[in-house]
Design a protein that fits this description.
Length: about 650
């Protein structure tokens, strides 16, 4: 197995953490009779030699020895070694790595018939990935399918057929026929689900017309037959920890995830499939469905109320894993969680122990059920939040969730002010503690908060790293409080020669409405500001309207900036000051197309413009017709993107209604 290993100058080779001198020890440990030692060695291979999918010169030097290990029946866990080889030779790893693995591709042929199911599974994928003879590969898969009895290997063979169709379309007919046959009786429900998933990915025209009902029926049949596997304790290694984090029905999760991925933008079918999963009698099916739902909600616009309601129905289940998964998803939905609000409220009432989540390190935070209820905008969260605010230590971040409750949270303002007044100004955590409270008081526009905000603004000391952040947060709050903040104007004037000049000028305008006082610092920041300063100055100038006409030449110049956010802010201010849409609309149109993240601000501006913004009707109409969320990436990422996208849609409808 290791012939020639000592002839390699491993010390001169590199891996993710430097010299590869330790690699021979890892390779030898892969053949150890001790399971923990083998796991640790595999951990080391993925952690350094093939770190995060990267390939180094030491990785390439390992390939012959890994093939030698895989070929020896006496070596345990050879399936994991073959999986490592497949990963090293993946297309994403680059040509040198693929060439190194392809040079030994013939070795995968006998491994596909190995007595060990784990080896057969990994080798089956490798046949399609590395063997350069499509007709031969298809015949090897056909022969293996005819004799294979292990369900997991059969599923892998089905996936290999789907990969074959996508990789070799000219030779795909035979593979499509095999997949079609496997999608029908007498094959098992799991095998049929796997075949349907691969057909959906590779040959969607061969799918049955009643795909979703069929898939749901097969899922329920599969679950009724499934028996729990043995509870094998995985070693405390990176690989072992990953295995423990996998769902107990990993295969079921994979089968349905494949089908969802294949259906892609067929959102109505995906929702129907999700509803079928959430209606399963089997708890593991429902857990898998809840986890899959998050990506669907984040990526696609649709009527999700039926699925959300069913997710809410999981909150009274006895399975903690199911309840926690459901709460986690609902907390990401903000207003879209409304169909589950009754279930969330019932859970909050029944389980006061879930109001606060304690961490091993750091301050306690708001518990996920209460957070989800507040984010949904349900006023029933207010009494519970009031209880927490009245206690000795309110959870960190509570104020950020108050923002979503609107006027219903007005009763919380006195307690929020008291909390703000207790923040020690000499604490390096002052800004972190104040931020959520200031956010809440800003949203509530509580005029009685001015003294406490002024205290922060006046008392934050220099040199502790908190002053700059505290000042920015406090100025934003004073700006929102308008004329109630007049007592703070001396402090705000003192900030007009600082990095906070633009925001301080905006707050002064809100408090006094004196254009002569704020125009000079805003013009200075507009023309000489760095970073975000010019953009912020433009935003504040737009609020002055016609009183800021002296800023128009500089705004016209900024509207030609190479930075999309500066152009957008300048164009919006230009309109608000001058009222002429003709030079502004082309800038907004270009920004809309260039950066989807700018669309929210642009749509808000168009609602203000009224009929003057009508030439951009096509952008708003197209946005409302688009099924994908405007900042979504495939797979769905970013919970706050849901709230941002829903606000954009609301503004688009409002603008169109006003035209």
């Amino acid at each position: 197995m290791f012939t020639g290993i000592d002839e390699v100058d491993w010390a001169s080779l590199r891996h993710a953490y430097g010299s590869a001198a330790d690699v021979p020890g890892l390779l030898r440990a892969l053949a150890s009779p001790d399971a923990t030692e083998r796991e640790a060695a595999l951990d080391g291979m993925y952690g350094s030699v093939h770190h995060q999918g990267n390939v180094y010169d030491s990785t390439l030097a390992c390939v012959p020895f890994l093939f030698a290990l895989a070929a020896r029946p006496e070596v345990p866990d050879r399936g994991a070694i073959v999986e490592l080889l497949v990963s090293i030779g993946a297309e994403s790893a680059g040509p040198p790595a693929r060439t190194a693995v392809r040079a030994h591709a013939e070795a995968f042929v006998p491994l596909a018939d190995d007595p060990c199911p784990g080896v057969r599974r990994a080798a089956t994928t490798a046949l399609v990935g590395f063997l350069d003879d499509p007709p031969r590969v298809l015949e090897l898969l056909r022969r293996r399918i005819a004799v294979e009895r292990d369900d997991k290997v059969l599923r892998t063979l089905t996936e290999a057929l789907g990969l074959f169709v996508r990789r070799h379309p000219a030779d795909a007919a035979g593979a499509v026929e095999l997949l079609t046959a496997q999608s029908r009786p007498p094959h098992s429900p799991g095998a049929r689900l796997a075949a349907l998933g691969q057909l959906a990915l590779a040959a969607p025209r061969r799918l049955p017309g009643d795909l979703v009902p069929t898939a749901v029926r097969l899922l329920h049949q599969r679950s009724a037959r499934r028996t729990p596997g043995p509870d094998r304790a995985a070693p405390d290694t990176l690989v072992g920890r990953i295995r423990r984090l996998r769902p107990s029905d990993e295969e079921g999760a994979y089968l349905l995830r494949t089908l969802h991925r294949a259906l892609d933008d067929r959102v109505a079918d995906r929702i129907a499939l999700l509803v079928g999963q959430l209606s399963s009698p089997d708890a593991m099916d429902r857990i898998n469905a809840v986890r899959m739902s998050a990506g669907l909600f984040r990526e696609w616009r649709a009527d999700h109320s039926a699925a959300v309601s069913l997710i809410g129905g999981q909150l009274d289940r006895e399975e903690d894993q199911l309840r926690d998964a459901a709460v986690s998803v609902l907390a990401e939905l903000f207003g879209l969680a409304a169909p589950a609000a009754d279930d969330l409220h019932a859970l909050v009432v029944a389980r006061s122990d879930l109001w606060v989540h304690s961490w091993v390190r750091g301050r306690p935070s708001l518990g996920p059920p209460l957070k989800a209820l507040a984010r949904s905008g349900d006023p029933r969260a207010v009494p519970v939040l009031a209880q927490l605010l009245a206690g000795p230590a309110a959870p960190a971040g509570l104020g950020f969730e108050v923002v979503h409750l609107g006027p219903a949270a007005t009763a919380l303002a006195p307690a929020l002010r008291r909390r703000l007044g207790r923040i020690p100004l000499d604490s390096p955590e002052a800004a972190e503690l104040a931020a959520p409270l200031l956010a809440a008081l800003t949203a509530l526009k509580d005029p009685a908060a001015v003294p406490e905000v002024v205290r922060l603004l006046r008392g934050a000391p220099n040199g502790l790293g908190a002053r700059e952040a505290l000042v920015a947060q406090a100025v934003r709050t004073l700006d929102a409080l308008g004329t109630a903040a007049r007592t703070a104007t001396p402090l705000l004037r003192g900030l007009l020669d600082t990095r906070h000049a633009a925001r301080a000028a905006g707050a002064l305008w809100s408090a006094e409405g004196d254009a002569d006082a704020v125009l000079p610092p805003l013009l200075k920041e507009l023309t000489h500001g760095r970073g975000r300063g010019a953009r912020t100055a433009a935003e504040q100038l737009g609020r002055l309207g016609a009183a800021a006409r002296d800023a128009l030449p500089a705004l016209r110049g900024l509207a030609g900036s190479g930075r999309v956010w500066e152009r957008t802010a300048a164009a919006q201010a230009w309109w608000r000051i001058d009222g002429d849409p003709e030079p502004v609309l082309p800038v907004l149109r270009d920004a809309w197309s260039e950066n989807p993240f700018a669309r929210g601000a642009i749509a808000t501006c168009l609602t203000e413009m009224g009929p003057a913004g009508a030439p951009l009707r096509d952008l708003l109409t197209a946005e409302l017709a688009a099924p994908r969320r405007h900042t979504a990436r495939p797979g769905g990422h970013g919970s706050h993107d849901i709230a941002r996208d829903e606000r954009l849609l609301t503004d688009c409808r409002t603008a169109l209604d006003g035209w």
